[in-house]
Amino acid sequence: MIEFRSVGKTFDDGTVAVRDFSLVLPSHSTTVLLGSSGSGKTTLLRMINRMVDPTSGSVLIDGADVAGRRPVELRRSIGYVMQNSGLLPHRTVIDNVATVPVLRGVRKRDARARALELLDTVGLDRALADRYPSQLSGGQQQRVGVARGLAADPNILLMDEPFGAVDPLVRAELQQELLRLQGELGKTVVFVTHDVDEAFLLADQVVIMREGGEVAQRGTPAEILAGPADDFVAGFIGADRGSRRLHVREVNGARVVVDAQGRAAGVLEP
Ligand SMILES: Nc1ncnc2c1ncn2[C@@H]1O[C@H](COP(=O)(O)OP(=O)(O)OP(=O)(O)O)[C@@H](O)[C@H]1O
């Protein structure tokens, strides 16, 4: 379990990124921080592995304050996947995946063998292992990024807009892959995005954020859809535009669910 207790962050230049943020993130589930640019999502994510230290309050992992952990050691024990995969350009795919385990003392041969297994896990062909990142597509690079995030077998996986830079089709594929992986591995995933559909698809818990790290609403996707807390949330998730309203239409005796544009979304079971 990860817990933010009245956390604040004011950067050296006086920017208040987060005022007072509290949240519990249950283990083995996915929490999505959803909000527009500058709402403090990345800052909060990075507090978990001490890439950023809060200026007030504390962050706890399984009840222990991360302030008591050595940052480098903590960072290597937590998976981190970012938007542009963050791969080392002069290292091959397999070396990129094996880097952290080697730094943690795993023998190189063992780390490479495990890295090959991880390529399978994220749905990448082992034939790509000796390529350099620039020789991969964007979607393949992101998969390598996920494999690298999983390499140290962390309990916690931090994902900062990991699929933001790939085209919509590949993005949808990566989202499905993450759902499958999460079903198998059951990590504690913290996922940052400003894409509402992505958030609702992946999250067990969604946290909708306003500027300054203020929580506008927290709940399951169904709870938020069923009852947006205010106009800000309704606007953010598109409820006010009716774009998430589904209707039932009778077609040849069957009840078909259609979206705001009249597109068929599915059939209601009798
Ligand atoms: N190192 C820094 N120094 C000063 N201000 C910063 C620093 N890092 C972030 N900020 C500011 O803190 C605020 C929150 O930034 P943060 O990156 O956490 O937002 P975000 O919600 O992740 O945004 P995005 O979706 O654009 O990544 C912004 O106003 C940003 O400009």
UniProtKB/TrEMBL annotation:
One Pfam family per UniProt: ABC_tran
The keyword Membrane appears for this protein: no
Keyword annotations from UniProtKB, A to Z: ATP-binding, Nucleotide-binding
InterPro entries xrefs: AAA+_ATPase (IPR003593), ABC_osmolyte_uptake_ATP-bind (IPR051921), ABC_transporter-like_ATP-bd (IPR003439), ABC_transporter-like_CS (IPR017871), P-loop_NTPase (IPR027417)
GO MF: ATP binding
Keyword ATP-binding carried by entry: yes
Start and end residues of each ABC transporter domain: 2-237
SMART domains: AAA
Coiled-coil regions listed: none
Protein name (Swiss-Prot/TrEMBL): ABC transporter ATP-binding protein
